[in-house]
Amino acid sequence: MTWIRTIPMAEADEKLRRAVEGQKALYPKEYAEPVRPDDAGGASIVGAHTLLPEALYHSFATFGALMSPELP
Questions:
Q1: Which of 40, 46, 47, 63 is deepest in the core (most CB within 10 A)?
Q2: What distance separates the 2 farthest-apart alpha carbons in the chain?
Q3: Which of the 8 DSSP states describes residue 43?
Q4: Is the dihedral of CA 51, 54, 55, 60 positive or negative?
Q5: What gap in Å lies between CA 30 and CA 16, rounded to an integer?
C-alpha cells in the first residue's frame, strides 16, 4: 500500500485550516462526516492533499459546488 505524508489538523497552519474549512463549507450536509475517518478524524482523500492547501481547496471546493442542492 502506498503511504502518503499528510498533515493532521492538529498540526495544520492557518493556510491549511482555511483550505479545509473552506472546502467543507461547500459540501452538502450528507458529506459532513467521513464514512471511514483517517487517524486524524478526516477523510483520507482530503488528507492526501494537505501538503498542497491551495490544490486541496480548489479540487474539493469544485466538487462541493457541483454537488450544491441549489443547482437545477
A1: 47
A2: 40
A3: B
A4: positive
A5: 23
Question: Scanning the structure block, which residue is given the C-alpha cell 493532521?
Answer: 8
Percent of the chain past pLDDT 90, that is, above it, reads: 33
Q: Which three cell numbers stand for residue 19?
A: 483550505
Residues 30-63: pLDDT tens digits?
A: 877 777 776 656 667 888 899 999 999 999 899 8
Give the H/E segment covering residue 23.
Answer: helix 14-26
Say how far apart CA 51 and CA 32 lie, in whole Å. Answer: 22
**Which string of b and e fits 4-23 if b means at least 16 CB within 10 Å?**
eebbeeeebeeebeebbebb
How much of the chain, in percent, has pLDDT values that exceed 70? 88
Measured between alpha carbons, how far is 53 from 39 in angstroms, rounded to an integer?
19
